[in-house]
């Protein structure tokens, strides 16, 4: 057995950033099935982007590298999903990917997407919700309601919709056996919050609030679903070298304030996510794991 014998769902599979605007997206979800082996794990990744890897894409690749062989990829961008699929298969030639285009802000899209995954593979064992956006930087009196709604709907509501759909399936299924004989869980969810869930910085009222809401959602759901043997945690990344932070230089003060004085890498966040998903973390529940080079500590 591998470390990840179950089915994983990750939202934000390629960049972790929602592109393009929802007005440009077809509302109809549809599936594109690849033809690789159907053995072992089923990770499912949501929201890919054809540009350089972000957290979601790196999580998907890391699942493949660690032995997952069925990976569902969910996103708005078919080209980005195809690239993520290609990179997963490059990391593990036995992987079969399942691509589903959805908008995480659309309840019907999310529900249908998760149903496609369970119809194809029967269960969801690891769900990683990465999709998000930063939005314009402005103090509250200069932020429009449309901008505020776009950020909070994508980050908080979108994460809640995905998590809710994942929980609906996890409650129904039996615990997955682990590679090392430890008692397994019915499912594991890892939400991607932010270091700005814990502290704040100027001109980020909507983003900081939306990510703090994800942290609170994580803790609340952890209390409610422990009785179902479902573990729920979140990671709180700092400044990570992704498409979302491409214009932030290594010398920027928001990077320098962290004691490690550099951007993190998507792989470093993915490593934390996979730890939380694994049987190495069977007593970690309701936690917010900072992956920020010491930003919050400083």
From TrEMBL:
It comes from the Eukaryota. The gene is xecD-1. This is 2-(R)-hydroxypropyl-CoM dehydrogenase. InterPro entries: NAD(P)-bd_dom_sf, SDR_fam. Keywords: NADP, Oxidoreductase. CDD domains: SDR_c (cd05233). The keyword Nucleotide-binding does not apply. It comes from Colletotrichum trifolii. The keyword Cytoplasm does not apply. GO terms for molecular function: oxidoreductase activity.
């Amino acid at each position: 057995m591998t470390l990840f014998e179950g089915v994983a769902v990750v939202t934000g599979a390629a960049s972790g950033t929602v592109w393009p605007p929802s007005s440009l997206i077809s509302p109809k979800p549809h599936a594109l099935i690849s033809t690789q082996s159907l053995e072992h794990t089923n990770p499912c990744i949501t929201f890919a982007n054809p540009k350089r890897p972000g957290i979601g894409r790196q999580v998907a690749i890391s699942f493949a590298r660690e032995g997952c062989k069925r990976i569902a990829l969910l996103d708005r961008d078919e080209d980005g999903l195809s690239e993520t699929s290609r990179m997963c298969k490059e990391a593990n030639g036995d992987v079969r990917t399942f691509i589903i285009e959805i908008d995480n802000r659309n309840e019907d899209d999310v529900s249908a997407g998760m149903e496609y995954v369970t119809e194809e593979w029967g269960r969801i064992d690891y769900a990683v919700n990465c999709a998000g956006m930063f939005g314009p930087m402005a103090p509250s009196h200069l932020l429009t309601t449309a901008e505020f709604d776009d950020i909070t709907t994508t980050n908080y509501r979108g994460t809640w919709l995905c998590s809710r759909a994942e929980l609906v399936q996890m409650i129904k299924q039996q615990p997955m056996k682990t590679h090392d004989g430890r008692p397994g869980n019915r499912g594991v969810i890892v939400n991607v919050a932010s270091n700005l869930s814990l502290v704040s910085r100027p001109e980020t009222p909507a983003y900081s609030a939306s990510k703090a809401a994800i942290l609170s959602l994580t803790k609340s759901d952890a209390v409610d679903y422990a009785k179902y043997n479902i573990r729920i945690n979140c990671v709180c990344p700092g400044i990570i070298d992704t498409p979302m932070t491409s214009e932030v230089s290594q010398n920027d003060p928001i990077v320098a304030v962290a004691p490690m004085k550099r951007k993190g890498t998507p792989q470093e966040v993915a490593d934390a996510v996979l730890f939380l998903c694994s049987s190495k973390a069977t007593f970690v529940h309701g936690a917010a794991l900072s992956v920020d080079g010491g930003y919050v500590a400083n």
